[in-house]
Amino acid sequence: MRKILLLMMLVLSLGAKAQCTFRNTAFNSGEFLSYNLYFNWKFVWVKAGTASMYTVQSRYNGTPAYRGSLITRGSERADKFFLMRDTLLSYSTLDMAPLYYRKGAREGDRYTVDEAFYSYPNGNCRVRLHRQKKDGSQHWKTHNPGHCVFDMMNIFLRARSFNPTSWKKGQVVSFNITDGLSINSAKIVYHGKSTIKADNGYKYRCLQLSYYETEDGKTREIARFYVSDDQNHIPVRIDMYLKFGAAKAFLVGMKGVRGAVTSRVK
Which one, 20, 105, 216, 266, has the greatest CB density within 10 A? Predict the structure, then answer.
């Protein structure tokens, strides 16, 4: 009887951990995506910098993992109006369970570093959050939510493998997201298909997805993604609704993508 109970506990534990995993069908190690950034300045869209995404197979604390990075850099011209230097880094298991997240953000006079350290004791998700402010102060908080938690980078990589074949307009995918020292509810909403022209001169059939976060009882759209309607689900255009205004990113180049880019319009 004791062995049976231990076996049942092991199965339940593995099941709980497995809920945080997902099968990657969208990208391979070595994928590199580059973008032009545009800011809305006094109702005029101006080119204001660049962004790049890079995903590679690596190791995290000795465990095989995917490392994803997103770097945004404003131009000298844009720096005169608003300084923006963001660097995002994430690690996840090869079956997409989050392991680590870091965001270093310099936006105007504000500078913060946010980190999330994930672990799965007894198959349950635990997240230790860290924030360093501009004045050097350190803040820590540990959450044991009893369900899976994600961050912006890890949910982005995971969402690229969603299968939208049967989705209809208004389809909602809900999850929980780390934000600073707190965990908030978030969701992705599907808005249908559209054709988007990238900055590489090509047009792509895209799926249109909105990303929302809820904080203090208020839900706000953070970004809208136009991802290629093919196996790769490459972000072709990203609209970002920032606290200081709005920004857009348009695809410039792609290397090392997993499958054929069948969404390109001839």
Answer: 20
Q: Are 40 and 245 in contact (CB under 8 A)?
A: yes
Query: Is the confidence at residue 86, as pLDDT, over 90?
Result: no
Cα 66 to Cα 251: distance, rounded to the nearest angstrom: 22
CB 224 within 8 A of CB 238: yes
The token pair that represents 45 in the structure block = 């869209």
**Through-space distance between the first and last CA atoms of the chain, rounded to whole angstroms:** 65
The share of the chain scoring above pLDDT 70, in percent, equals: 86
CA 7 to chain centre: 36
pTM: 0.86
Strands of the chain, DSSP E:
31-41, 44-60, 63-74, 84-93, 98-107, 110-119, 126-132, 138-143, 172-179, 182-197, 203-215, 218-228, 235-242, 245-255, 264-265
- C-alpha 186/C-alpha 221 separation (Å) is 10
Tokens 């410039």, located at residue: 252
CA–CA distances in Å: residue 25 to residues 18, 134, 160, 242: 17, 39, 8, 30
Count of alpha carbons within 13 angstroms of residue 155, beta-carbon side: 20
CA distance 141 to 143: 7
5-14, 28-37, 51-60, 162-171: least confidently modelled range: 5-14
Q: Containing H/E element for 12? A: helix 2-18
